[in-house]
What we know:
Number of helices: 2
Helix content: 10-25%
Shape: elongated
Structural class: alpha+beta
Largest sheet: 6 strands, antiparallel
Amino acid sequence: MRHSYQCPLRWSDMDAFGHVNNVVYLRYLEEARIDFLARAARQTDPEAFTGGTVVARHEIDYLRQLVHQTDPVTVELWVEKLTAASATFAYEIRDPASEGGPYVRARTVVVPYNLREGHLRRLSPVERSFLEGYFDDSHSG
């Protein structure tokens, strides 16, 4: 199963060359990840991920140019790797109206964090169970 997030494009996302700037894609990934962890996960358990998470790594492959459009793009997110104290999220950013392939493929390693005490923590059983529902390592590479 994949989490799907409809991400609007903003006029300010474009750079001087008329396409979406490379750093803006990180914001799109962040919006999808927050929707996944703060909305979808908390529908399963209101306490899930409330202690916080931190990003340990990003990896992005830019595959096609994206220019501003009025329709949102779709950010699909799934869990590619899961350990006791981290999750690797994989993403594709696509245009549902376009027959072309994804604009971006990316990965983010996220670690659960205890914000109050200031240290890394392990995934709770509920968090792990939620993430396992989105596990798919068939595209890892």
